[in-house]
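Subject: design request, 210 residues
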């Protein structure tokens, strides 16, 4: 079935000001949850700090003296208070500082972004606006404009750069995030209720994902 790839072009007041033709190879794929999940898992693993750490026997501070003599006490023989089975001793096979990053082919990462964009388009939750510009860096002004779209959360993608007034106004708005097109990613697209693309972002994404 042929999908009409003509999207309405809005301004920030939720007024239709024209139409924009979208690339069906990017915005009209049948969304595959398995590919989207692969990319989200890769993103979340890469974002982990990996700074969790426990001390081994060699790292625990304490004396090296034998706790008590080998025989005659009735207790099991012990060689160190720092052993893993002693209170306050080291931890055996505990977590260490490491990277949780995994490998994922670039083609799969690209495909995941296409499927994420397509899923929002199919759901009717992809909004195209002419530009992200404000006359003044006023958070209240921008918040009122976003209320016109009746969404709970917004992930906004601009072109190569974000206009400074708009960027400053966005900083104190909860459940909303704006990035240049290079920052468009699967996790944020899926996480937010609506994705909002500027006209420049659409052009840049189509060049990037073709």
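Subject: RE: design request

Done. Sequence follows.
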């Amino acid at each position: 079935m042929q999908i009409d790839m003509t999207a309405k072009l809005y301004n920030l007041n939720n007024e239709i000001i024209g139409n924009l033709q979208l690339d069906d190879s990017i915005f009209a794929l049948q969304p595959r949850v398995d590919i989207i999940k692969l990319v989200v898992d890769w993103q979340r693993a890469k974002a982990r700090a990996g700074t969790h750490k426990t001390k081994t026997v060699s790292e625990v501070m304490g004396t090296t003296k034998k706790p008590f003599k080998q025989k005659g006490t009735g207790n099991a023989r012990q060689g160190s208070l720092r052993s893993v089975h002693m209170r306050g001793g080291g931890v055996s096979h505990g977590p260490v500082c490491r990277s949780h990053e995994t490998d994922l082919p670039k083609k799969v990462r690209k495909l995941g972004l296409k499927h994420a964009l397509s899923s929002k388009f199919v759901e009717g939750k992809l909004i195209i606006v002419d530009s992200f510009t404000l006359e003044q860096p006023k958070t209240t002004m921008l918040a009122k404009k976003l209320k016109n779209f009746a969404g709970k959360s917004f992930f906004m993608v601009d072109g190569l750069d974000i206009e400074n007034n708009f960027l400053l106004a966005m900083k104190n708005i909860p459940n909303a995030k704006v990035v240049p097109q290079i920052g468009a990613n699967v996790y944020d697209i899926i996480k937010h209720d609506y994705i909002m693309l500027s006209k420049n972002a659409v052009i840049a994404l189509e060049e990037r994902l073709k």
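The longest helix spans residues 106-123.
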